[in-house]
Amino acid sequence: MTYTVAIAGLGKRGMHHAEAFAANPSFRIVGLCDIDEARAQAAKEKYTDAYATTDSVDMLTKTKPDVFCFCTLPTLRLPLIQAGVDAGVQMIAYEKPVATSMNEALEMYKLMRGAGIKSVVSHQHRYGEHYQKVKEIIASGAIGRVHTVYGHATGWMLHMMTHMIDYASWYNDYAEAEWVVGQADGTEKFSDNHPSPDYIAALIQFSNGVRGIIECGAGAPDVPEVEAWWRKCRVGAQGTEGFAEVLTGGGWRAVTRDGVSSGPGNMDYAHDMPPYIQDMADWLDGKKVHPCNGETAYKGFEIMMAACRSVVQRGKVFLPLGPGEHELDALKKALPVPTAQPAG
């Protein structure tokens, strides 16, 4: 079966999606939208059969797609989810993070669950051969019983933290998180288009006894094996007989009961996007749930928001979370404004 797709947001990530959808025979692009008219028209020249506009509601009304994909700034999540629900789509695929507050996420998922809409979130790095190899090693039992999973990135929270949480949780078979303790520092990055503390750390207690450790931003551990700054991400698991970890920009390595091993791998959209898109078709066909499904992403986002609440409340935050004060606003108010360091 062929499914129709409408895409909003035609920057780098939007065009990655468009190219992968266009290359898959299960999909046909029928709508293109960007608030920058020149971008919309440039995409229209490439996908000539699609309707192009600067208004996402107009696009959805005109095209009535099966799949609505949007790759926009994180502040625009809820209105676009509402637009997709109103248009009667079967699936909504969008970029991480899920939202910018727990209240927003709760409303988004209430809308999608009520409408029976499948959702997919762009945690597509897991398709990398190096990410897959680490999962294979952990699942084989070669590092013994897993007791700790971890992830850290030099990129800041709204860019990178749900990536780190998702892959570390995957390495722990997506056990439920029970509580989170967080700490954060710095307010400079709140002015970014992905507003975040400069640094944040989360300790996560999972229901199977495994501890999670996640750090993002300035002050997170460096990954000296990797030169490209945005690819300085390390995710892995420690067990009773060794460890296995992936470096987003530098392959994988492991110490197991069988010895020391390592292998290649790098972040590569040309490699990761085609299976990410194919799994959307398979889910729509009823074959299997997408590995990057929105319900799993929601739980990872909930962990991130719990870390923010913990910083403000100065203690453990238990899951699941209900509504509350906007986490980023509360965090920004709670963090001290940095002062100049004394000379000498």
Secondary structure layout:
Elements (H helix, E strand, L loop, with lengths): L2 E6 L3 H12 L3 E7 L3 H10 L4 E3 L2 H8 L3 E4 L6 H11 L3 E4 L7 H14 L2 E4 L7 H12 L5 E8 L3 H14 L6 E9 L13 E8 L4 E7 L15 E7 L2 E6 L4 E5 L2 E5 L5 H16 L9 H20 L3 E2 L8 H8 L10
Parallel strand pairs: 1-2, 1-4, 2-3, 4-5, 5-6, 7-10
Antiparallel strand pairs: 7-11, 8-9, 8-15, 9-10, 11-12, 12-13, 13-14
Helix pairs in contact: 1-8, 3-4, 4-5, 7-9, 9-10
Give an account of the 3D structure.
With 344 residues, the chain is an alpha/beta fold. The chain has ten helices and 15 strands. The chain has two domains: 3-121, Rossmann fold; 128-268, Dihydrodipicolinate Reductase, domain 2 (2-Layer Sandwich). It has a nine-stranded mixed sheet with strand order 14-13-12-11-7-10-9-8-15. A hairpin with a 2-residue loop joins β11 and β12 (242-247). α1 (12-23) packs across α8 (269-284), α4 (77-87) packs parallel to α5 and α7 packs across α9 (294-313). It is globular, with a radius of gyration of 20 Å.
